[in-house]
Design goal:
Layout: H1 9-16, H2 20-28, H3 35-45, H4 49-52
Length: about 70
């Protein structure tokens, strides 16, 4: 997705406020991507986290909730 949209690893790393080598490790599968990074990438690309994780082919993000998060 990054390459299809002509972004460099450095650009995405800067957006995420991480080192380029960390971003590269995410892409290579050497490091797991933290949930907060997945959410920020989904927002950046305007897709759902499920799409980024390969759980769906539907890119459309879910509507934002108007309800506060539930506490456990």
């Amino acid at each position: 997705m990054r390459e299809d949209r002509d972004f460099t690893q450095q650009q995405l790393a800067a957006y995420l406020q991480i080192h380029q080598t960390t971003y590269s490790s995410y892409e290579l599968g050497k490091l797991g991507v933290p949930v907060d990074v997945l959410v920020r990438l989904a927002d950046f690309y305007n897709v759902s986290v499920d799409y980024l994780l390969g759980r769906t082919d539907v890119q459309t993000p879910y509507p934002k909730s108007t309800h506060p998060p539930r506490s456990s």
